[in-house]
Amino acid sequence: MAINIDDAGLQALFPEIAEISDDTLRRGVLAIWKEIGAECAWDKFEDVPKNIGSEHGRRLVDHIRGVTVMALSLAETARKLHGTPYNRDHLLAACLLHDVSKPVETEPDPGKKPPNDKVLAARKSALGANIQHAAYATHKIFAHELPLDVAHLVLTHTHASNLRSNTIEASYLFFADYADSDAGVEPTGDVKFAHRIRFVE
Ligand SMILES: [Fe+2]
Fold this sequence. Notes:
Layout: H1 7-13, H2 23-39, H3 60-82, H4 88-97, H5 102-105, E1 106-108, E2 122-124, H6 126-130, H7 135-143, H8 148-156, H9 168-185, H10 193-196
Antiparallel strand pairs: 1-2
């Protein structure tokens, strides 16, 4: 199975795609999502859970929107109040692509009951079990010849990466990702990411 979705369908899922001002970058983001749709084992992106842990009952697409909108508000707040500049197109593209590989890192688990009527049960795919999270998303960004900065932001957004970023866009993406994840963990009563994070110098 695969997901057959067009640009209008993706824009409906992720309205912030339209805010990317650079045509090549915006088209690249759309093309990567369409390719992932064609490669994955899901029927629609809405069925894919955010993860197979405590957020297995929420939709990945809602998380990606949450991260994008939260990161933009962090960036805009710092710009307005402190005059901190940032690259809006790169931040938008990186937020929208940071978890684009999750639909191929997982697959539907037909043996398991769906946790609710929002998403299906998932398990790790062979790719997800063998390749570090976000590596495949980064590969797609290179394959589409999108900016190195966007690849860097996507690769470094996760603690699965050995490499950290020192850019302001990475900061907004990183903290928005954890804040939106904790908003998803909150109703489950599980331990939040902010409680678990340990920074080692
Ligand atoms: Fe994420």
